[in-house]
């Protein structure tokens, strides 16, 4: 199937209020199956444009419910659009979603997995995850000094006594990392020892992740400013033909956090919650994660100590520099990291081909030019 754009017949389902950033945000969904899960999200997602990235067999037809504005790309489309550079896009892994980030022309991206449904808050009200993500992105972050009442920009709270006034302006927020009720995002060993564990704790909080602190980013409920950080949101080489899987979003999270710290940009985590409905097979997961479980003990110290030069004033420059250090320092662990470093460069080249310089903002020390 070619990169088809579709707008099916209008639905009679009501849309709630005026959708925020309707013309500035794309929803990216990686999938191997029909997108029936969108029916539950219809009141929240229908006003927005969807980018569906079909993984697996490109001859299979993916059904999208009527009433959604979408474009769908399969592996054949990715090869046609990127040519030889398509090798940097993972196959048979949800990491393929980052192709959707590349072809989008919107300022913001929200990405969600097809086994995630609308959650409810403790009062029983359905959670508009997209609205909360947008709120997170449109208010500043506070990575340089921790506010003990968490996000000071939320209604009903503020900076506490002793918080420096010079830091209250905050920094631009470029990533909003949401959480999950029901099935937690556990690794395979934890799944095996806690097969029945479910997350029922709803914590009504949004926190800025402090500068210098890494975190395990999960891609199944994630929003970000595509213009300001999108070119670093590469989910690596995973899945078919690769020695590792299920580290795609975490790799991207480590990379973007180092770059955000360098460029004085902010990352938030906490609200909103979605309902994660399906636990993946822990034995299959263990085969995918096996090497990563060992490698991460060296990857984390690498990212904790990596230093980007002062002349890295844009996300792309930071990412190319990071690829050099990955090749030099992590290539000693396994040849896979040399291959990954090459793919990081290819990703930037492909990104710039589809998004020529000057079409998006350039980040310089926590500000943006050209806006």
Automatic annotation (TrEMBL):
MF GO annotations: UDP-arabinopyranose mutase activity
Glycosylated position list: 161
Keyword Membrane: no
Highest taxon above the source species: Eukaryota
Alphabetical UniProt keywords: Cell wall biogenesis/degradation, Glycoprotein, Golgi apparatus, Isomerase
Catalytic activity annotation: UDP-beta-L-arabinofuranose = UDP-beta-L-arabinopyranose
Family: Belongs to the RGP family.
Descriptive protein name: UDP-arabinopyranose mutase
Organism name: Musa troglodytarum (fe'i banana)
